[in-house]
Design a protein that fits this description.
Elements: H1 2-23, H2 28-35, H3 40-49, H4 52-65, H5 74-90, H6 96-108, H7 112-139, H8 141-144, H9 152-181, H10 183-193, H11 199-214, H12 222-249, H13 260-270, H14 280-293, H15 297-326, H16 330-341
Helix pairs in contact: 1-14, 2-15, 3-12, 4-5, 4-12, 5-6, 5-15, 6-7, 6-16, 7-9, 7-11, 7-12, 7-13, 9-10, 10-11, 13-14, 14-15
Length: 342
């Protein structure tokens, strides 16, 4: 109980800090005025495209699961993504990252540890692909510098967070490969660390780790790996497309390629475990809009509020519809994630 209270205190403190910096120095009248200055046809298109990443993620997930179960329902993969994001958007601590694989494991009668291992791979590749897209933007500077300029602070922020992302994803990939290809040693090390714990608990953790390592098996197939990398680009280029339309909804015509850094910053902000991505998403969006695209502060704040609200509302409506159809409550899923976290 004490551990949970401390964790929640840290999460809500981070939320407050990021929201403070997001709303700092804004002109509230201008913010409210800009909220409605949106092109209706692009706004509707934005709503319709909100579930796109859930579908592309579901398609991509197949290639992490295929070596264990060839026919995993696309509908169940889509539902797991929708429900996972719904839980993440409503509860603090990114519980949806646990609920998503646990839900699919139950629906498809698969081992929980195995499916959770695939999520570890998925998140690693998400970071890696975004770092590659950011790298393409930074290295292509001579090609666009004549018509698109970013101030030095903006480039400095991108280089810093890009470096963090590359280091983080590289460490995760090396760790993942080490765990998989030296699994006997990894399991022996885990068994040594689990010695002080009760035998029943240690056995359960050991079995979970065995299944988790099996979830990394896709690295063994070069064909699946290449397909997965390609589909990872499809997922994130689709997300960039979404934000491209979002810019047009606010009558800001911009080259698609130039949104790679904004998408990267949003990924960084969304990874902060605040409730509903509130705070982190907002602050990094404001940073990107003002420092990269020279959008005035009030409009940047308005745009961020709108795009975040659309994503939360549409995703949660889809998630709630699936839960209602299956007769599952949101708090049952929350408990499922908390039990796995413990």
């Amino acid at each position: 109980m004490k551990k949970t209270a401390i964790r929640l205190s840290v999460i809500f403190f981070l939320t407050f800090v990021f929201l403070y910096f997001f709303f700092r120095s804004v002109d509230w009248k201008a913010v409210l005025a800009n909220l409605i200055k949106v092109d209706l046809k692009f706004f509707i298109l934005l709503i319709l495209l909100t579930p796109l990443h859930l579908l592309t993620r579901a398609i991509r997930w197949k290639y992490l699961l295929i070596h264990r179960k060839n026919e995993v329902s696309l509908a169940n993969r889509f539902a797991a993504n929708a429900i996972g994001f719904t839980v993440t958007l409503i509860f603090p601590g990114r519980l949806g990252e646990l609920v998503k694989p646990l839900y699919l494991a139950q629906k498809e009668r698969m081992r929980k540890g195995f499916v959770m291992g695939t999520i570890f791979v998925e998140r690693t590749f998400d970071v890696l692909i975004n770092c590659i897209l950011l790298g393409l933007f930074l290295f292509s500077k001579p090609l666009y510098s004549s018509y698109f300029q970013v101030n030095e602070e903006g480039y400095s922020n991108l280089q810093f967070w890009g470096t963090v992302g590359v280091v983080f994803s590289s460490v995760l990939i090396v760790l993942t490969l080490a765990i998989y290809f030296f699994r006997e040693r990894a399991l022996a090390a885990a068994a040594f660390l689990l010695k002080p714990f009760p035998q029943k608990f240690s056995k359960r953790i050991h079995e979970f780790l065995v299944e988790f390592i099996r979830g990394l098996k896709f690295f063994h197939s070069i064909g699946n790996l290449l397909i997965y990398i390609f589909l990872s680009f499809v997922v994130w280029l689709g997300v960039v497309l979404y934000y491209w339309i979002f810019f047009y909804a606010y009558k800001i015509p911009i080259a698609y390629f130039l949104l790679f850094p904004y998408n990267f910053l949003l990924m960084v902000g969304a990874s902060i475990p605040t409730p509903g991505m509130v705070g982190g998403f907002h602050y990094f969006s404001r940073m990107g809009l003002t420092s990269l695209y020279s959008i005035n502060l009030s409009k940047a704040v308005s745009m961020t509020i709108v795009v975040h609200a659309i994503q939360v509302l549409v995703t949660c409506l889809i998630g709630y519809a699936i839960l209602w159809k299956e007769g599952i409550s949101l708090f049952q899923l929350k408990r499922l994630g908390e039990v796995a976290e413990e």
